[in-house]
Amino acid sequence: MSVADNASPTHGRGSRRETPPPRRRFSLVALALVLPALLAALGCGNGAASDDGDGVTADGTPVLRIVTTVGMITDIVRNVAADHAEVEGLMREGIDPHLYKPTRSDVITLSEADVIFYNGLMLEGKMGDTLLRLARAGNAVFAVTELIADDYVITDEASHYDPHVWMDVQGWKRAVEAVAASLTEVDSERASVWTENAARYNRELELLDGYAKEVIGSIPADQRVLITAHDAFGYFGRAYDIEVRGIQGISTESEAGINDINRLVDFLVDRGIRAIFVETSVADKNIRALIEGAAARGHEVVIGGTLYSDAMGPAGTWEGTYIGMIDHNVTTIARALGGTAPEGGFRTWREGR
Measured in whole angstroms, how far is the alpha carbon of residue 210 from the centre of its chain? Predict the structure, then answer.
């Protein structure tokens, strides 16, 4: 049984939803007792979480060791926890979370964490068994999509959940709230810290959402079509009123066939679409096939840019933050499809607010 599409037990997303892992309140004493047995069970040897003497904040409270899966979650947690936590993300830039398998080192890292955050909705499907074992052993394991309402979540024709909630900034604000609520469950004494930091970050996201609506809205209506390597932009399309087509399905585990390519070529030619987009975490071979197919029909299509879908940009860059990732995507899409965006993107736009 996989835990990867876990949500809160009270949500009840229907019969397709698998049983969520048990939730445990954080306890340093309990954690110290649990981890040695857990590591032995996983074959990872000794290495329970311990304080090296420097793991405290300026006010003397312990620094939490938090492990996350994808970069978008890592960025949330760093903003909400700030200097009260050391946050490590398992998946770096360019990594496809749909296909990611945890390594032995990942299992050790997860086992030594005080708190684990993952997306859910089957994004990290191949990590499900590992997350379930850790949760059953008493670790604090949380899905950031747990506060997303049932009627918000997108499903495909096969009733598979679309996990790419971060593509809608309003939806991702709920993930920020979920992180704050989960950290409060783990450490209620710092509840005001988590809540205040989450509120501060969400104010920035509210501005980002306004930027996305304005800039995507500047694209001419007949060109407001986003075609990408896989169907990661469904929430983006719904939120910002742009038609979205992906060559592959919601998960990159699905393969695009020749009929899928031909249908999209027909669509490109019939609609006169002039730009399509590659993704940093997905091979571009299918995008190239679309361009060649359209050319054979006498229609020129160009690559409008590279978008961040399942992974953010390199660490230490603007695109390596969630806000920078969405800014890059919005600005790139708008300019390639005939819309307008300020020279400095969101950061310039924000200065005028």
Answer: 20
Are 168 and 145 contacting, i.e. CB atoms less than 8 angstroms apart? no
Per-residue pLDDT tens digits for 125-156? 889 899 999 999 999 999 999 999 989 999 98
Q: In what order do the strands lie in the sheet with 85-89?
A: 85-89, 64-68, 115-118, 140-143
Which domains can be identified in the chain, with CATH numbers? 28-211 (3.40.50.1980), 217-351 (3.40.50.1980)
Kindly provide the b/e burial profile for residues 16-51, where b requires at least 16 CB atoms within 10 angstroms of the residue's own CB. ebbebbebbebeeeebeebbeebbeebebeeeebee
Q: If you search the block for the tokens 């499809």, which residue do you land on? A: 337
Contact 39, 45 (CB under 8 A): yes
Q: Answer whether 229's CB lies under 8 Å from 247's CB.
A: yes
Contact 328, 300 (CB under 8 A): no
Per-residue tokens: 60: 């003397």
